[in-house]
Specification:
sulfite oxidase activity; binds molybdenum atom; binds ligand MTE; Ig_E-set; Immunoglobulin-like; five-stranded mixed sheet
């Protein structure tokens, strides 16, 4: 029993040692093997994978997935340790297979570094080395006499040492990767050019009601959704965008050329198709960028094209209807967000922003390639995973004040929220309290049809439980549909509802 535990510990420590050194090597060559395996798992996930990923990992970083991959590695390592008692060869074969899985994942990443295979090789090699030193000691350490005390201590010391070295190397590697990496430093040094056209936000656009989402979302509060386990770190000096496919002439543009073009400011609300009714996967920013239609007309789009497949440096793709990129709307290659270069997690140095379409079919971050093509010939990332080929944003509203479950003091108060249908606009919002008559809320001044609009309604709250329901009214005069639909395949519907108790 004791030797089994020791064998498992030796194997797990060997795996920790190897994985840690592999991560450190990965940081140096720019390709973390654990992130590669996690990324491959995200891509291989079944169609319901996006729901699951969002449920599991939320909108923040993907620490949970990295932790899961690391735990799996330790468990397999423990297995290799146990196996080594019977057959060292079998244990070594298991480690080699693990290294191969890491190598295949690493080189098959779309943004694979040239030396991507080095890190899993280092990881597997270091694991084999540690295993060859620790595993025999786990089995032979006697346990009764004096010498045994010394040898047990030596075994424990070596095992703990290997595990600790691995952990340190991994932490060092991740710090190298996410910390002082070039992109962060370069981004901090950038001064964006002034916009040739600016947007002034009307004074009445923000009602300034506490707890109501501000009309411009602070960048730090802006939702984040992507499949990138390790956020791509792009040095703008090396960034290029290629426009090709059904065009007369291919166009290639670099960072300096892009910044030299007349950049325009626009305010656009981005929405994720995964946003539930009442959810917060939506935000509005002041973007700085260059209209994509100018670059497309430079390339000369051929008559039979109807879609642009945009690709990010890490292989995400979005299929955007051509007309959304060639009509007059502010469909841009964005370089600035709320007065600063794009944050790295929001697509630095260049992303797409297209008013009126959910992010998964339009808002490609870290974009490097635009292929002019046809819906019949190409698909974006989420389409084969069960999401609709087209993603126009649906008419929707949200109640921000009061919040679900709030306790409200009786007396004069206010109900407020936001409503949106980007690029179409919102004509009004109505509110229903406890199943009574629909009352017209007051709309704030909209910045444009491309942004959400705040709304409010005075409320004389009486003691007791109350239910508040809202619905937006479309520009055609039709109210938002009450039919409840989940986010998949093309966006949630239904009225937002909040229950509060007034005292
Ligand atoms: N490269 C890349 N771009 C991407 C995605 C992605 O997974 N990878 N996700 C898209 C989705 S689903 C949304 S909703 C928006 C979110 O943009 P944000 O994270 O800046 O809010 O980015 C889009 N662009
Ligand atoms: Mo999304």
């Amino acid at each position: 029993m004791r030797t089994r535990a020791r064998a498992a510990a030796a194997g797990a420590a060997s795996a920790a040692f190897g994985a840690g050194l592999g991560e450190l090597a990965g940081a140096l060559v720019g390709a973390s093997p654990i992130a590669a395996v996690g990324g491959a798992l995200i891509d291989l996930a079944p169609p319901w994978g996006k729901d699951l990923a969002i449920a599991l990992f939320g909108t923040g970083d993907k620490a949970a997935l990295v932790t899961a991959v690391a735990i799996a590695l330790l468990l397999i390592g423990a297995g290799a340790g146990l196996l080594a008692r019977r057959s060292m060869g079998a244990a070594q074969a298991l480690v080699v297979v693990l290294g191969l899985v890491g190598a295949v994942a690493a080189v098959s990443r779309a943004d694979a570094a040239a030396l991507a295979v080095v890190a899993p090789a280092v990881g597997a090699g270091a694991t084999l080395l540690a295993l060859s030193l620790l595993a025999p000691r786990a089995v032979t350490a006697p346990s009764a006499d004096d010498a045994a005390g010394t040898s047990r201590r030596t075994f424990l010391l070596w095992t703990a040492g290997a595990a600790a070295t691995g952990a340190l190397a991994a932490v060092g590697g991740w710090a190298l990767q996410t910390g002082a990496r070039a992109a962060t430093a370069v981004r901090a040094a950038i001064t964006l050019p002034r916009a040739t056209t600016t947007v002034s936000v009307p004074a009445g656009a923000d009602l300034g009601i506490p707890q109501l989402a501000p009309v411009i979302t602070p960048t730090s509060d802006f939702y984040r959704i992507d499949t990138a386990l390790a956020v791509p770190q792009i040095d703008p000096a090396t960034w290029h965008l290629r426009i090709h496919g059904k065009v007369d002439t291919e166009v290639e543009i670099g960072w300096d050329e892009l910044l030299a073009l007349p950049l325009e400011e626009s305010v656009t609300t981005l929405t994720c198709v995964s946003n539930e009714v009442g959810g917060d996967l939506i935000g509005t920013a002041r973007w700085l960028g260059y209209p994509i239609r100018h670059l497309l007309s430079r390339a000369g789009v051929q008559a039979d094209a109807d879609m642009v497949l945009s690709t990010s440096i890490d292989g995400f793709t979005a299929g955007t209807p051509l007309e959304a990129l060639t009509d007059e709307r502010n469909a841009i290659l964005a370089v600035g967000m709320n007065g600063e270069p794009l944050p790295i997690a929001h697509g630095f140095p260049v992303r797409m922003v297209v008013p009126g379409l959910y992010g998964y079919v339009s808002a490609t971050k870290w974009v490097t390639d635009l292929e002019v093509t046809r819906f019949a010939d190409a698909q974006g990332y989420w389409t084969p995973r069960g999401w609709s080929e087209r993603g126009p944003i649906k008419l929707a509203s949200r109640i921000d004040v009061p919040r679900r479950g709030d306790t409200v003091a009786a007396g004069d108060t206010v109900i407020a929220g936001v409503a949106w249908q980007q690029h179409v606009g919102v004509r009004g919002v109505q509110v229903q309290i406890d199943g009574g008559d629909w009352q017209d809320a007051t709309l704030a001044t909209a910045i444009s049809p491309d942004t959400w609009v705040q709304w409010s309604l005075p409320w004389r709250a009486t003691a007791g439980p109350h239910t508040i329901v809202a619905r937006a009214i479309g520009t055609d005069g039709q109210p938002q549909t009450p039919t409840v639909a989940p986010p998949a395949p093309d966006g949630a519907t239904g009225w937002p509802r909040v229950s509060v108790s007034v005292t």
